[in-house]
Structures are given as structure tokens and as C-alpha cells.
Amino acid sequence: MDFFKWVSSILLLLSMLSISSSNPTGPPQIGFDFLTSAKKPEIVEKMVDWRRRLHENPELGFEEFETSKLIRKELDEMGIPYKHPIAVTGIVGFIGSGGPPFVAIRADMDALPMQEGVEWEHKSKIPGKMHACGHDAHVAMLLGAAKLLQEQRENLQGTVVLLFQPAEEGGGGAQKMIEAGVLENVKAIFGLHVSTDVAAGMVASRPGPVMAGSGFFEAVISGKGGHAAIPQHTIDPILAASNVIVSLQHLVSREADPLDSQVVTVAKFQGGGAFNVIPDSVTIGGTFRAFSKESFLQLKQRIEEVIIGQAAVQRCSATVNFNAKERPFFPVTMNNEDLHRHFRNVAGDLLGPHNIREIPPLMGAEDFAFYTDVIPGCYFFLGMKNESHGPLESAHSPYFTINEDVLPYGAALHASLAMRYLLESHPSPQSIEGKAHDEL
Ligand code: NI
Q1: In the chain, which end has fewer C-beta atoms inside a 10 angstrom radius, N or C?
Q2: Mean of the per-residue pLDDT values for the chain?
Q3: Range of 414's domain?
Q4: Residue 69 — very low, low, confident or very high, per pLDDT cuts 50/70/90?
């Protein structure tokens, strides 16, 4: 270690000691420094610029080639090593010692197949594609965090793993990243999503299940078509499908614990094309949601049994397809209790404890769940609502907008959660000393 590094290490140690002395029982409050840094005009301008460039050029799942190129160029400029391509367009960056412990922070990169309705200077230039879920802001904030962390790389007590993943919107991009080995040796993962329901400067989350497990089903109910005026010569699949749908509604209302929230929705009904013809078959389809693996698998099994059984009551046959290859089941997004406590501590120090909201779980699904299915994780919402600017349109609306004022908060939270996780999971000098003594 050269002299200047030695001096800067001592200075950092002293500054951490002096900050933590205001909170003698708590951990060092390094989060505050990151928010101050993230609010510096040069960092804010960069994040806004990245976000707007991505917004102008939205790309769908597994097609994020230009997005990926922009990220790699910025990582190159910051001097951050990375692996690419992972899961087609994904990138995994590394900041810190290069050794354990490893902690991951994640951003999704994909846009939606919809036309932007907002008229503004940086409107999507690609017809029929739009960043209507804020993933452009997510990438900008993770790049912002990368910059903040890279400046502190000498002080990281391990390695921060940056995950830029493709295809969050139903493509199961996270699953493909995991299959490529991105979670190997990673002890914990943090992820965020912008929220139009939570005030700017606030965050929201909860321990345990935070987003539902989700699956899709499709069934073909087959009878015997014929003249609508001679029903006795037909086997009517429309009537059978109608009874199937009514019976499916009993799964939640009669078979599930009323305190264990679940959803079964039939959202698709296709059959027949004439007023006087009973069709041969009807196709129905829908989604089901639950907050535990057991409830999810129970629903899946009963959906199949009810469709086949109820169709048989009407003399029809049925085949049920869960399309798991095309539309993978999303596990429950489960917040680990210890990591959620860590999130509360870090976010509390950064934003003030009164700016952390505990929310009920949401029935929406999020592919961050694939990570929390494998390693402990914590997922939270970053507030964007600002009453003085009027209400924000919700995600997936063609009028969705980002409150760019919150970009520094997201970057600082990512950086603080990761850095402090490493600091706290690293054995303290006392415990190393203790261990050495034990071994002697
Ligand atoms: Ni999203």
C-alpha cells in the first residue's frame, strides 16, 4: 500500500468513526455520503442523459442490443470489468476486491410493445415500443450506483455484482441470467422498481412475500358442433366452458383460506363465429396468482382438475396447457427478513425512518422472484409521486412518465445497500482476532 492510499484509508476510517459516533450502537451511516454524491450535478446530468437516450430507443425483451451497448460503453469509461453477453443481451459487472463476499444489485432493461402517448422532447423514436414501466430509469440508476461504487472501490469489503438483465416483462430474463451462473457465490441481491403510488423521497416494501407467484393456463374444451336449433344432436362446448368458468371461481371463494390471498381469472374466451352454429370447441385462458408455493401448486392442480371434470359433466373433453415454456411460472417475490431489516436500516439512514412505508403484498408478478427463489433478496419500490406536479399515470400506460428527480435516490440506495451489506457481512477485526485465538 503506498503512502497516499494509506493516508486515504486512515481518513476514511476516521470519517466513518466520526459519523458512527453519532449513532454509537448502529452501523456506520455511509448511506448519507452516497446520497450527497448522487445529487451532485455531474452525476444527476449523466443519469438523466442515460435515461433519456434509453427512453428514445426502447427495445423489447432479449432485443436490448443498443441498450446493452450503451451500458458497456459507460462501464468501460468507468473502468468497471464485466461479462457479456449473458442471456443474449445481459451484462454482469464487478466492483471491489474481486473476492467474497459478493452482493448483487439488479436493473431490468426491456421496454414494452406499445405506442407512447406522451408528447415531449425525448419521446420514443421507435413506433410501437415504449419504456412504459421505468426500466430506462432503472438502468440509469444502476449505472449511477456503479459510478458511486467505483469511486469507493478501494473501500468495498468484497465485490458488488451489477446485474443488467434482459426481458423482465414476461420473458423470464432473470431465469436465463441465473442459468448462465450469475448468482454463483452471490450471498444477497437487491432490486427496486419505480412507483407512481409512493411519494418521491420515500420507499416502500415489506418482509416476506411482496409480489405474487404467477402462472397462465389455456384450455381447449371440445364437444360436437352442429345446428343451433337442434341442440340434441350436438355436444355444446360453449355451455360446458361457461360452467367451467363458474366452477373455477369457486377455487378461491370455497377452497382457499380467506386469509391467504389468491386470484384465478379467466381472461380469454374464444369459440363460435355464427349465430346459428354450435362450434366444435371453445378455448379459454387466464392467469392464477398466489403468495406461497403450496397455494400456487394447489391452484394449478385444481384448475386442471376442475376444467377436465366440469367439461366431462357436460359430455365434453378438455385439454389444459400451462404454457410454462412460453410463459414461465413466476415464483413469489420473497423478501428475506434479515435483508429487509438491512434495507430498512440503510434506507432509514439515507431518507429518514419516516420515509419508509410498509405495504401489503401486490398481486402483480415480477421476475426478480427468480433470484429470490435461489438466494436471499430484497425488492422495494422507489417513490416518484409529487403532488405539486399532478398525478402520474401508472406503469404500462401510454402516458407513463418518470419523475427524474428521484434518480439520485435510486442510485444512492443501490450503492448504500450493497456497500453496507459488504461492510456488515465482513468479519470485524475483533472477530478475526477472536477466531485466530480460538485456532491457537
Ligand atoms: Ni417493470
Answers
A1: C
A2: 91
A3: 3-210+332-425
A4: very high
CA distance 57 to 428: 46
Nearest CA to 252 among 210, 293, 215, 302? 302
In angstroms, what is the span from residue 148 Cα to ligand 1's centroid?
24
pLDDT for 90 equals 98
**Structural domain contains residue 349:** yes
440 assigned to some structural domain? no
Q: Report yes or no: 339 and 378 within 8 Å, Cβ to Cβ.
A: yes
**Burial class for 26, CB neighbours closer than 10 Å (0-12, 13-18, 19+):** exposed
> From the CA of 77, how far away is ligand 1's center (Å)?
27
- Whether residues 173 and 219 share a domain: the answer is no
- Give the Å distance between the CA of 67 and the centre of ligand 1: 16
CA of 111 to the centre of ligand 1 (A): 9
- Please give the model's pTM, rounded to 2 decimal places: 0.86
Grid cell listed for 224: 360436437
Ligand 1 center from residue 365 Cα (angstroms): 10
234: CA distance to ligand 1 center in Å?
Answer: 47
C-alpha angle 45/48/54, rounded to 5°?
Answer: 140
Give me ligand 1 centre to Cα 61, in Å.
Answer: 12
- Say whether both 289 and 356 belong to one domain: no
**Mean local confidence (pLDDT), 209-225:** 97
Rounded distance from Cα 169 to ligand 1 centre (Å):
7
For residue 366, is it within any domain? Answer: yes
CA 273 to ligand 1 center in whole angstroms: 37
d(CA 417, CA 342): 8
Cα(167) to centroid(ligand 1), Å: 10
- The alpha carbon of 158 and the centre of ligand 1 are apart by a number of angstroms equal to 29
Lowest mean pLDDT among 221-230, 339-348, 390-399: 390-399
pLDDT at 349 over 70: yes
- Alpha-carbon Rg for the chain, nearest whole angstrom, is 25
User: Is 81's pLDDT higher than 80?
Assistant: yes
The verdict on 131 and 173 lying in the same domain is: yes
Going from the Cα of 80 to the center of ligand 1, the distance in angstroms, rounded, reads 26
Tell me the CA–centroid distance for residue 193 and ligand 1, in Å: 7
Q: Calculate how far, in angstroms, residue 413's C-alpha sits from the geometric centre of ligand 1.
A: 18
